[in-house]
Amino acid sequence: MSPSSLANARIDGRRFWSTIERSAAIGTWRHGLNRLTLSDADKAIRDQFVEWCGGAGLAVRIDEVGNIFGRRAGRDDHLAPVLLGSHLDTQANGGRFDGIVGVLGALELVRTLNDLGHVTRRPIEIVNWTNEEGARFSPPMVASGCFAGVYERDWVYGRTADDGATLGGELVRIGYRGEVPVGGVVPDSYLELHIEQGPILDAERLQVGVVTHGYTSHGMLVEFRGETAHTGPWPMQSRRSALVAGARLVAAVDDIGWDFAHVGGKASAPRLQAWPNRAGILSEWAQVVCDVRQDDPVIAGIMAERVQRAVGEAAARAGCTCEILDRWNWGGRIFDEAMVELVRDTAASLGYSHRDVASQAGHDAYFLARICPTAMIFTPCRGGITHNDGEDATLDELIPGVNVLLHAAVARADR
Ligand code: HGY
Ligand code: MN
Ligand code: MN
Ligand code: MN
């Protein structure tokens, strides 16, 4: 394979797009997708991905938390692999591109190298991470976090969904609790292709985003405990409604978001659960997920402290007890300078319009960055709409990012 013919290689995208369209037919929901992690729909896309990997000549392995790897041998196959991927699970009202572009872009890269007959020096591995979204099992990105050594495997297995199903039990149920020990393997590097999930590239009509860093995010799972009582005779002075505490926290978090909106801060409490949560009876139990994001880690920390105070205030006002069951925190200037430079130089050498951009959403790359040199490549998405069945992008908008992934990954794998 002459370097020049490889240098001039451009993925035309028809095969990539038909793969995207095939994936968009698995777990459909209104105009988008509902492929909550480890659901039957997630099993279906996993089965399809494993089949595609086999068809591309990849050696497939599944680790203990269901991460699926496809390996393409290198000339010096003992070297650490260049790892490429993202996630195929979606939000409950998800789009056809969030995560999917990164996994299927990596698959297309392998198929293209096969067509070109090019064997890279280092092995290349592609990966589908379990539970990136954290929509069914909290927290988000828990399986890439486990791979990076941040979460213990058995703790991950115990994560529990609304219906009482555990993450470990669901892995067994759908046949994706692999034998391969999770983690312990340090890739040479990691590259993740993803839609921006923000408006900048689309608004500026740019082809590629060079992701310099991630917004700092603080998340927490809060539990309130109160007491059931009759909504009729029970005096207001004696009430201990966990649902009221939860509702007060949801409103307080929104107020915090508005207090920092002028500096691009976001604060959300997107999930409130209560029990019994029925007419005629006050709730004794409630849980709230809180999530703050801001570009400056210091400001993000101040917002998180405000949320923490609001938890205590909401509990006191409702006469309940409270506990923060779980916290997660990611983002910041975590990406490897040389890898970011590689993405930037590759976009420039391929003649694509590009700019530096921050990621406001979390990604599996945030955990991979803790164990190996990591960078991300963004493509535009229509108006930044995402986690919404209106998420949209065209092949012309996606293919520059796929080509940057191809050339950056090969440059890294051949060095
Ligand atoms: O929460 C996040 O930003 C990620 O999409 N799960
Ligand atoms: Mn994603
Ligand atoms: Mn997402
Ligand atoms: Mn994400």
UniProtKB/TrEMBL annotation:
<feature type="binding site">
    <location>
        <position position="87"/>
    </location>
    <ligand>
        <name>Zn(2+) 1</name>
    </ligand>
</feature>
<dbReference type="GO" id="GO:0046872">
    <property type="term" value="F:metal ion binding"/>
</dbReference>
<keyword id="KW-0378">Hydrolase</keyword>
<comment type="similarity">
    <text>Belongs to the peptidase M20 family.</text>
</comment>
<dbReference type="GO" id="GO:0016813">
    <property type="term" value="F:hydrolase activity, acting on carbon-nitrogen (but not peptide) bonds, in linear amidines"/>
</dbReference>
<keyword id="KW-0479">Metal-binding</keyword>
<dbReference type="InterPro" id="IPR010158">
    <property type="entry name" value="Amidase_Cbmase"/>
</dbReference>
<dbReference type="InterPro" id="IPR036264">
    <property type="entry name" value="Bact_exopeptidase_dim_dom"/>
</dbReference>
<protein>
    <submittedName>
        <fullName>Zn-dependent hydrolase</fullName>
    </submittedName>
</protein>
<feature type="binding site">
    <location>
        <position position="133"/>
    </location>
    <ligand>
        <name>Zn(2+) 2</name>
    </ligand>
</feature>
<keyword id="KW-0862">Zinc</keyword>
<feature type="binding site">
    <location>
        <position position="194"/>
    </location>
    <ligand>
        <name>Zn(2+) 1</name>
    </ligand>
</feature>
<feature type="binding site">
    <location>
        <position position="98"/>
    </location>
    <ligand>
        <name>Zn(2+) 2</name>
    </ligand>
</feature>
<dbReference type="Pfam" id="PF01546">
    <property type="entry name" value="Peptidase_M20"/>
</dbReference>
<dbReference type="InterPro" id="IPR002933">
    <property type="entry name" value="Peptidase_M20"/>
</dbReference>
<feature type="binding site">
    <location>
        <position position="98"/>
    </location>
    <ligand>
        <name>Zn(2+) 1</name>
    </ligand>
</feature>
<feature type="binding site">
    <location>
        <position position="387"/>
    </location>
    <ligand>
        <name>Zn(2+) 2</name>
    </ligand>
</feature>
